[in-house]
Queue: 4 jobs
Job 1
Amino acid sequence: MRQDEPSPEKGLTIRLFGGMAIHDALGTSLLPRSRKTRAIVALLTLIAPKAMPRAQLIALLWGQRGNEQARASLRQAVHELLSTLGLWRRILVAERHSLSIDLREVAVDGLAAIAPSAPKTELLMLFRDGFLEDLRGLDPSFDYWLSRERYRLTRIACAAGEAFLREPHLRPEVIETARALLRLDPANNRGWQVLAQDFMDMGDPAAARLTCEQWREAIGLGDDQPLPPEMAALLSRIRAGGARQWGFHQPEGKNERAGIQERFTPRIGIREMRVIGPNIDPDLPAGLAEEITTALSRFRWISCVSSSSHATAAGETAEADAHWPDLDLDLILDGTIQRAGAHLRFIARLLDMRVGGAIIWANRSDHDDQDPLDLQDAVAASIVARLDPVLLMREAERAAARDLRGVSSRALVLQAVPAIYRLDRASFHAAGDMLEAALHAGPANADALAWFAYWHLFLVGQGWTGDPEAATARAGLLADAAVASDPNDARALTLAGHVRGFLLKRPMEANVLHERALSLNPNLAIAWCFSGFASSYLGNHDASLSRMRQAIELSPSDPHLFFFQAAIIMPYLLRGDYRVAAASGRKAIELNPWFSSSFKGYLSALGHLDYRDDAAVVMSRLLNLEPGFTVQAAIRRSPLSRPQDVERYAEGLRRAGLPEK
């Protein structure tokens, strides 16, 4: 045998879960570039050792093409696969009418978990990162096959999870299995029962009650329908212990005490910008208004009315302006467009119609003249990304001015958000009470679930809990429930993703949620920031900085800019750019002196720079915020995946003088 020839000792691995991958024992990637070629590998792997007729492969992947063209495409894919596999090309068995894969020297993640001798819970855990998600959308026939295959494997995994939970095991294993089971089957009674029972065993009936309410929502149970026996038993125990009853629910936006209707989903009218001066594309104002409306509508908590839809409703575009007062709008976004040579200036204003049309926000952006569609995208992104956080804080201030009694779940969340970011300890804990009340008012409110999970993240990160393990467990439960409640809420997805990445130390899973959030709303600045965190946890520090800079560029005046500035400390630190990391630390602390995470990366950078006097001052302030914080505590909490990154961070803290234990 030649030295470079494959052998059983070297081995080949095919990964079908968490992003498809093929690599040899040395880690060399053998994954084809074409997604359809990858799909062929997946198809053949999952039916091995059986062969698949070429005609069936064509029907699954090229069913919408003519016969000759489809055959040529298959031949090209087989050629690509053989070329990519190189010395491993012998695993592909190509017959005249069929193809198959010889797996005798190949390890496959999914197949190994299905094997009779394997613990079936392994398959359950594999589903955390998705099953061949990167191959969806190739062809309707393939998508149908993929759905059926996922359903088949899911049934095997769920049955295994339920069997595991019926037997005695260590608590961490039980909780992880129950959560994994609910990710696959959100209505699984056994999984919910285990989680609720665990909270009762830990002496937290409030969390158990919340879990039962989420359980009720997940299985679609109405108030007048009989409960599953397990849930009824748990509720009896909670009530026997004097816990508060359910039933606090207020119709959205209704203030009974004042006897008036109030909205907590602001209605915004998007008017076409007024053109000042000549030489401006006459279609630009209307196109831009539609683009802004589309971009704003991606924020689930905002309701938009565009110029074109209003003009259609009014009957005549020229008469539309006269009818704006009839639309019962809370806010109106308008502005102007001017040209100076090859440059265009856009000025946007937000008028609050509830206070007489006062201008509460304005933004100016300058752009070079370019393709009209690209120009509309750029201008809309710059307006919308800056407007969202400002509007969120504005609506929060309005909600905070109202009586807390009898308000809706959404209003309570709005009141809690500013206190979470302000990080004053007393108001922070008050925000936790508001979010708890919000969940009682609306147990399936994705915003309330996500923000409360995020609140727990700060609770642990700031060192404000005596039981970080319990707070982490509850944060994970809330994050999972937020995603299950509304998988299309970009903000809820990215908040839940950050909880999974930072607290639960599952950055790959966090990445999936962040990418989903950004696909739903590419102008959500905080999603770019959080996805940057996840990249840094995985050791991709250049990608992390790029994403975090995108967050700052999208929203440079964000009320939460301190968080973005604190975020970039760690990737700079872990790249060895200590001076830049220290400069970012100074900016973050100036913007918010109560956020302890800013001090930690900053202190490590000062330690590496050997700036002892500065380090002493920063360490004193950090220990004032988190008394007893040590190097070992930093290591224990760190979500960084790579040992060298953890060591670089810890070594900087040691050099700065932070106690080891």
Job 2
Amino acid sequence: MLPAAAAGAPDQAYAQAAVSGAPIGVAFIGTDLRLTWVNEAFAAVSGRGANDHAGRRLSEVLGSWHPAIEDQVREVLQSGRPLRDVPLSSPASSGAASGAASGSASGSAPARHGRATIIPVHAASGPMLGACCVVVDVTDTVQRTEQFLQAQKLESVGLLANVIAHDFNNLLAVVQGYCDLLLRDATDVAKRTKRLGEIRNAAVAAGQLSQQLLALSRRNTGLLGPIDVNLLVRGIGRMLDRILPANVAHDLVLAEDLSLTFADPGEVEQVVMNLITNAIDAMPTGGLLTIETANATLSPDASAAEGLAAGDYVTLRVTDTGVGMDAATKARSFEPLFSTKSPSRATGLGLAAVKAMAERRRGGVSVWSEPAKGSAFTVYLPSVHARPTATSPAPVDQPPRAGETTILLVEDHAALRQALVTVLEDAGYVVLEAGAGGEAQRAAAEHPGPIDLLLSDIELPDADGMELAEQLRALRPGLRVLIASGFGEQALEAKHRGYATIGKPFAMSELVDAIQAVLSPATPAAPAPPGAPRAAGHVH
């Protein structure tokens, strides 16, 4: 029931019925941050009975959805202004408790998502009574959005499939051809060296192709951080000669001082590929594709025109000189499932996904287009200004001396494992080898001496490489870890958990360097004084 003050007059009875039976959650909160009343929909979100809320702190019932939810209410009570679109997210759970909240009798409940609006409540005479928290459960919307974003990737992956398959076959032909020559005649040292070099070059190129395809097909990692859009665009730019039709030229115009933005690298790569795909389709007879990046500061007036908050942004613009769009088509260009192409050639999801991805990062997309003059899509992503934090250098342990370092190698691919053992032993390391997580645990338990480093593949037949690392570090606290992965999102996760990583495929010299870096980490350099020249770097 609503508080007594809400009952009595007919209009108050209507209000009581509407709020009590509303499909969105409503909670009344006193100035002491304790709940006074909730409706059934709010109770369903919190997982408690409607009568089990009065007198409880808001953090008790929504703390798992938003740890700082009470701070948000305090802000509203102090400022007297409503706070809208507060994100809520409840982690996935398992067991009977989660089943009660989610409506399932058993098993695990997936993560749930909501949006809250917190409104100050004043008495008719003016004093602050408390706040009203309105919660909308958007779990279904979030899940469908994720499915929608993943489904639309098929269009851009399909664009690359034939190209990459063709390139892979060419590289395999190179490898097979030179192997045949080596088997036929390996007596000429100069010829043998040249042929082995060509085989290695082909292997490196094949590895780059596989990384490009994985970057497009992977799911968004959900691991957000400051990223340089220029690096991602350059990586895609290296593929453009193979992606674009012969009658389409391209140009990259990248700002040298581009700010960072906070995003998932996989999301931004997908935005670029979707816009490229759209541009190619808009130029059936050829033209020019231009990709530009820049910094932009939007004034209140300019930001209102774009539907964004005022502030600093990183912009990514993809321009084509194609057929363009009339006003009616341009107005519908971001609608899901809308496309001017035939159903057999398009999903109608690409531009809608670009808009969704940008808005998820508090950005947006604008479009300019005129018939027969082309189109330009500009993506706005909020810029972040990375500030180095002053920290005291951690003490550096004395690294093991050459010939005394023991490495536990865990790799399930037998041929690769044998190659790695050979390389590591040639480099002077003592190697314990295992093909699975269980073998590694037995080897670590039975080895009488120290083990200095675990070098493990991230995917093993019976274990996850990172979980194996945690188990072995519990057994041997001083153990250092290097994780090898062929999947970008897994490497990101490993880095976020504090493990050094190396991406497959790698040169053996790169592996030895990575091992040395883990065994003997460099002391952080002191910050350079203002105005000092920076050392030249290189981009991978």
Job 3
Amino acid sequence: MTSTKQLERVNGVTAKADRMQPIVELFTADRACLERLMPVPYSARRWDRFKLFYEEWRRTLREIPFETLSAADRADWRLLWSLIETDERHLEAERRLFEQVECVLPFATSLVRLDEDRRAMKTVDAKAAAIVLDAACEQVAQTRAALKIGALEVDARTASLAARAGTRLGKVVKEWFDFYSSYDPLFGWWADSPYHALDTALTEYAVFLRHDVAGASDEDIVGHPVGRDGIEAELRHAHVPYTPEELIEIGQKELEWCRHELRLAARELGHGDDWRAALEQVKRDHSAPGDQPALVRELAWEAIHYVEDNDLVTVPPLARECWRMEMMSAEDQKVNPFFLGGESIIVSFPTREMQHAQKQMSLRGNNRAFARATVHHELIPGHHLQMFSQDRYRPYRQIFYTPFWTEGWTLHWEMLLWERKFARTPQERIGMLFWRMHRGARVVFSLEYHLGLKTEQECIDMLVLEAGHERDNAIAEVRRSFEGGYHPLYQCAYLIGGFQMHALYHELVTGGRMTARQFHDAVMHENCMPIPILRSLLSGEKIEREGYSQWRFSAASSHSL
């Protein structure tokens, strides 16, 4: 067990037991160590070991005298306690998910045990391992036959989840096999034939589960709704005191406000109230093939000069210098149809190998006005400045990642720049409004999907019909949302996190307690955390040991409520 005494020296630096930074750093290193040792999610040993790990850390935190901590240390204590609670919940969800698919993967436990024994550096018994591989291959065949004749029945979503798990399991077994096969001649003599038979069987079985049992093609999107309990648990962790239905209503009202503003812009362009016609005009104004990098460079420097000239945030000289640009591949655009950002902005634009229709959709979906409203989100003052700061100010807090902080920062900037009339023309306003409408739609379709109220196809249709998306881009967006490994509230967190951050900005800046630059610098210097805890730190509000924030931020943060 990690005791308080053990924490008194961390990395060779004497630390008081009530100083949280070294404690968080130790937890981060310890957890990462265990993750590297036990990375396979279908393992009882993993579940038991991590359960013990979290129990030990709970005891450690209870030993720390919370009432004697500084405000920053109280925040860190609460954040670490909450992280442990969330990790435990995710571990239990991982176990339940495996139980759901185990009936069609009865061989999984024996195969995972082979890998665990390797990681524990046990001497391999090649003959015994070959018997396990051969038995697993036979179990694949038997289970597949039972599914074919209806002796074993599973629903389509379970079959799809099992297909993914089977593919992952195949990679685990390959890594195990490759470890021994290159240097142990006896191992290869015993295991080579049964391994290759099993590898083929697992590959074909995953295809069978997805295509024949789940009825899904390779292009179909099959996600995993987390349900009401899962949503509400994640909202508690983010200190968002709203029901899913209240958040859906916020998203719908944002959509209504965006359409109102779009109609105003449409009138200026001579389209009357036909905002779709105005949006179509904007989509046709895109860079010529080959010219998108120059446009992005121009837009990036425009945004940097704007925030500096208006004294809105500190931009360190190295942050101005050290951003780069990459172009997104055609394959990646199937999942990310728009730009991605950070130190490198990854630019979506048609590639040579795309079909003609795909090229047209990529051109239209990454037009000039849309790009102008995206580049500052991805670079400065958005994700690049954010990540630059995270590496330099309280970097140990990166473990407290939440999409509400990560995307809330960038959406706050979109809201602030809108208020400051950064958009100079109707076309530029439409570009900004498209993304605002997109984020409102994300709240609605993602929450309704996880509540079981929308299918994947209905989410795609909503983006096309209600948010003005190109269909291929809508498909990619939904695939990213539900098959891209994202947090279940990630899509919701853009707009809702933006409202949180923007409400805090108006509370402290419009309220006269900080300048805009002081506020933005302070947010960056505190690093990531649920925004209500950030609010307590910046406002001087006392942070309690227990409970969740009841801050109802929406009325202060949205014109549309």
Job 4
Amino acid sequence: MTALAILLPTTVLHATEYHVSISGLDGKATPFKTISAAAQIAQPGDIITVHEGVYRERIDPPRGGTSPKERIVYQAAPGEHVVIKGSEVVKGWEKMDGETWKATIPNNLFGKFNPYRALIGGDWFDRNKRDTHPGAVYLNGHWLTEAKSLDDVLKPAGEHPLWFAKANDQNTTIWAQFKGVDPNQDVVEINVRQSVFYPEKPGVNYITVRGFTLEQAATPWAPPTAEQIGLIGTHWSKGWVIENNVIRYSACVGVTLGKYGDEWDNRAPGAEGYVGTINRALANGWSKQNIGHHVVRNNHIYHCEQAGIVGSLGAVFSTIDGNDIHDIHVRRLYSGCEMAGIKIHASIDVINSNNHIYRTNRGIWLDWMTQGARITGNLLHDNATEEIQWAQNWEARVPGGEQDLFIEVNHGPLLVDNNIFLSAYSLNNRSQGVAFVNNLFAGAFRIVSHDARLTPFFKPHSTEIVKLHDNPCGDNQYYYNIFASRCDLSGYDTARLPVHMNDNVFLNGAKPSKHEAKPLVQSAIDPELKLVKRPDGIYLQMKFDRTLADHTGALVTSEMLGKAIIPNVPYEQPDGTPNRIDTDYFGKKRTSENSAPGPFANQSGETIHHKVWPKKTPANEMQNKELKATADTAP
């Protein structure tokens, strides 16, 4: 780095690539020993390349780039496995009775934040009659489960080994069950840092984080009314790219695209409280010019106990594409209203596309302000299956609280097209201005007749509020969808706003609404939907009836959809150009003369076998190869 570049940090004269190696030395430019040391010197346009090894640190980037072309890039060296952890190894375990061991850790290991003293909690959080800490204990990479009491840990270990901690002013003592292993011989780690990659200050823009394994962080609860700190997060900024990473083992959230913090954090629950949060955000620079425009793509996100991806207000104008998200909120130690594979407040012009989401409590949850958003080409299945319902509090869950898609108190326009929804509960809908086109639904529906909460709508493609409005049922459109088995659309029969439904297919007992104009009802046909896992991916097997191929029509366009009634805004793309649903789940072209129902344009034979994950599309084929090179398998 030249002296002139140091004097003018926002002017990129000569982009520099800095290297980081576990054998390096901080204070020297080539290579550094820690990523944080390289971050302190990197300027817009520079690249930080990290070489193979385990780095135990929290990266707090002091600055970002100045534009999409002059960003600061953090990347794993090509073909090298780079792990960044929020944990530290613990030795000196003392054996107790049975399979229980004890370790005493000086509190200076934790610094200012001790995750075994702090409690998870905040707005919309339900502690489930127990305390839960953001700390964790890991045996050979996989976490144990926090117990309710020390007595539980002193008992014989069950299927899911337990840990428990007590902390005083000097030390933290942890008891843990290790079945058949000596924790002093195996790798035992504990959470030490709250995050792995997160800027302390907001407004650190244009950063790329690529190719890492990021794991084991003591993240806090991330409600929409507070600063949202994730294992990796953008912190009220603009223009990040988070791609091709493995992101796992977060006490709460994996990726946050959320808001800043202020004195109102966790003090503004309820609809009126959140409206206050929105107004304060507008006063703090919430606009298309300053916030959002992030890209989160081709990441493997799992073992996060609140959500895979969360964003309150800070995710506007972003794209979330090609992510593999699973095992989210499966232990159920706590509950609340913010758990999902993807949970976004204010999905203004946000694209959720080509994601694979399974073994979560909810797949995609878009809450408030979806104006201009699109959900397209996603695969969702096995959300809230029996295999993950083993937590102690599971019997207390709210019936029907798990589904593939939850769209809550939005006025639209929102376009939902070419998705595959295969869980037992497909849709929970209490929103208007939604168009469902060419989807496959296999689960039950919940259609809410009215929600009295007042939520905003905006001028098109902006954060400028026009008005607040309540949420009556209706202003939903359904075209060329396939419904199977549990689907029942009769909840729309009493809708207060107009409903338009044409050319949908109803199989194996699925029930249309009275508003359906030209349904194809084949109650005796069971599509026998089945996902089959093979060495090269996941295949959807579906029995095909020739009558489906003959049930075709014109392509769905913005002109056909018109405007969402309440905001009086057209169904158009984020750049203002019209929508035209002329491709299918795989990106293959549909024709204007022959648009088959469901997510697949080409259907033939008596049984369909489509490889639905990883997806093969022109846009993401290269990204899938990069993801495979960086991801490792779940324990």
